Amino acid sequence: MQIPAALDAVTTFEEKLPGVLQGTHVFRDELTLLVQPVDVPRALQLLRDTKGLVYNYLSDISAVDYYEPARGYGDYGDRPERFGVSYHLLSMLYNRRIRVKTYVSEDNLVLPTVTTLWEAANWLEREIFDMMGIRFEGHPNLRRVLMPEDWEGHPHRRDYPLGYETVMFSFNVDEINRHKPYAKE
Amino acid sequence: MATTERRPLSLEIPTATENALGQGQTWEGSLADLKGLVSERALTGETMLLNLGPHHPSTHGVLRLLLELDGEEIVTCLPDVGFLHTGIEKNIESKPYEKALTLTDRMDYLAPMSNNMVFSMAVEKLAGIDVPERAQVIRVICLEMTRLNSHLVWLGTHALDLGAMSVFLYCFRERERLLEMFEMLGGQRMMTSYIRPGGLWRDLPEQFLPALESFLSYFPSKVDDYEKLLTNNPLWRDRTEGIGVVEPELAISLGLSGPTLRASGVNYDVRKAMPYTGYENYDFDVPLGEHGDVYDRFYIRILEMRESVRIIRQAIKRLPGASGSFRTENRKFAPPPRAELGRSMEAVIHHFKLWTEGFAAPDEEVFAAIESPRGEITCYLHGTGGNKPRRVHFKTPSFIHISALARMAPGYMIADLVAIVGSIDCVLGDSDR
Questions:
Q1: A158 touches chain B (CB under 8 A)
Q2: Contact residues, chain B, for A66 at CB < 8 Å
Q3: What is the ipTM of this complex?
Q4: How far apart are CA B23 and CA B369, in angstroms?
């Protein structure tokens, strides 16, 4: 069987889907393609189904929150929006990886689903919905997966506090005991 | 006191006005919540809904499966995880890179070194740390020992689920020797935290290599014993052949990895495809299955144990010639040896900075993937520019494999489900993190 020569993802995008690619970023030899949220499914489909690319395996979908308490809401440094979602694809044929990244605005927390392309996306998207609160349009079963179903909030947001118990010392033991939910008689 | 009063025949439940749930609420769930998830036949009562787990021994931890059964045949399988969710990823965001490492052990508690490795690899990539050759060779030894450890627990419990009790005892006997060696390395039997960003915690202790050599000379004959008990055992083959078949296209779409993917005949092993920590220098084979059933997944793991022994033997041979120390000499990332603190002011400063603040890594994202015993475990790491990460996300093989149960189980009997759950080798700590 003749294996077609490997193509460059960026030039393929310019040929097949002009205007979709918003930019590229390379860090430690990892190529990142930036696309708009609405273009995610067709960008991933192009990467999966084009001869010479064949990114046929979905390794991971990760989301990140760029909120920082020191800067406050609305200011995310050099990032355009608050949330970033990264799709990590792998080409088993050409042994290479690629990352497709999209920024999701806090006011419109919706992404189109990619469960139509890979069934593996099902739980990965549910996890992002659970942890970050980003909704995936068209997902067959968008419920919480790790947290209890009646949980409030999305724990992996950077403004979600990390709960902990205050350490007891002799100077604050009374104050802490007063607020502890001890069993009543 | 004896009484002649007639006791009620059936236990009478008083009509409670208030129970633990509160006024007017019952423990009964509503079938309407399941609309769209189970078939219409379940809503009319034609098929039965059965809750398997979370505390069922053959679900290997706290895995809950909601089954829709037509007689004994599974119509729908809805896996439910999250009972072991401990927020490890969230906790890592509040810890410096070096200290966050100890949390990764607790994810997949049967393969802690793999988790250490993937997190260390991501940190090394993000911060730009070089790992000396000696550390890389020892890492290979550790990773393959972890694979043996994990596969032994898997084989024992999988066989136990299907009724072969004795295999469990033999497997745990051999695993005990591995755990003793882990204790020599890291001071703990399971949560070793031995592989760290920049290398290892310490060099190999003196008694380690003799113990490993003696284990390696003893272990292959034990694998023969397991094979005598199972491989051609007609009962075992009846229970496992043709069960839980996954076609290669479906396996890729479902995102399966590791032995579960290779049983379907897809030749993908991260160690071969994208070698890390020097795996390209070792001569080993990647066993492939043909049928994608439970038996193939079993036999591939048996063969992998033999390959692991081969790799460890080669690594021991490479060890004397490997250059460098057990961790990086770059003082910005690894603390100086204790002896240096007495004579070098700079060493004291490095020591102080590393143990109070840790090192900084750029505000960028990296991705690392390794072959854990269960499959491809990946780590997505996003730095902040400071000493703590912004986001860590592990795609763990168990999480994906459990989600795939929904596609693997329907059409088989409920007794086969136990075999299928065992064959995907899920660890719930790995899945829930």
A1: yes
A2: 390
A3: 0.85
A4: 51
Q: Is residue A1 part of a domain?
A: no
Q: Which residues of B touch A65 (CB under 8 A)?
A: 390-391
> Quick check: is A2 in a domain?
no
What is the CATH classification number for the domain harbouring A41? Answer: 3.30.460.80
Domain count, chain A: 1
Select from A86, A84, A20 the least CA-distant residue to A59. A86
User: Closest Cα to residue A101, out of A46, A57, A43, A185?
Assistant: A43
Q: Is residue B25 part of a domain?
A: no
Give pLDDT tens digits along chain A (185 positions): 788 887 888 888 888 888 888 888 888 888 999 999 998 999 999 999 888 888 999 999 999 999 887 787 878 888 888 899 999 999 988 889 999 999 998 888 899 999 999 999 999 999 999 999 899 998 888 888 888 887 888 888 888 877 777 788 888 888 888 877 777 66
Q: What is the mean pLDDT of chain B?
A: 86
The reply to whether residue B252 touches residue A57, judged by beta carbons under 8 angstroms, is yes
Of the partner residues A95, A119, A141, the one whose CB lies closest to the CB of residue B407: A119
Which site among A123, A132, A143, A147 would you substitute to test the B interface, given the most B Cβ atoms closer than 10 Å to its Cβ? Answer: A123
- Chain A residue closest to B85 (CA)? A146
The token duo for B330 is 């770059």
- Domain count along chain B: 1
Range of the domain at B266: 88-432
Residue of A109, A134, A137, A118 lying closest to B403 (CA atoms): A118
Closest approach of A123 to chain B, Cα-based (Å): 7
Cβ–Cβ gap A88/B36 under 8 Å: no
Looking at the partner chain, which of B89, B367, B400 has a beta carbon nearest the beta carbon of A88? B367
CA dist., res. A184 & res. A180, Å (int): 11
Instruction: Give residue A171's Cα distance to chain centre.
Output: 44
Q: Which of B63, B86, B250, B252 to mutate to test the interface with A (most CBs of A within 10 A)?
A: B252
Q: Does A54 touch chain B (CB under 8 A)?
A: no
Q: Do A88 and B90 touch (CB under 8 A)?
A: no
Residue B232 has pLDDT above 50, yes or no: yes
Query: Is position B67 within any domain?
Result: no
- How far is B119 from B114, CA to CA, in rounded Å? 9
Contact A28 B380 (CB under 8 A): no
Q: Which regions of chain A does DSSP assign to beta strands (E)? A: 21-27, 30-35, 57-65, 83-91, 96-104, 110-112, 135-137
What's at B160, amino acid-wise? Answer: L
Out of B250, B367, B404, name the one closest to residue A30 (CB): B367
Q: What are the residues whose beta carbons fall under 8 Å from the beta carbon of B207, sequence distance 6 or more?
A: B184
Separation between Cα atoms, residue B300 and residue B265, nearest integer Å: 11
Spell out which residues of chain B touch residue A160, defining contact as CB-CB under 8 Å: 90
* C-alpha distances out from residue A67 to A64, A134, A158, B93, B360, Å: 9, 15, 6, 13, 19
- pLDDT tens, residue by residue, A108-146: 889 999 999 999 999 999 999 999 989 999 888 888 888
For the whole model, what pTM was predicted?
0.88
Q: How many residues does chain A have?
A: 185
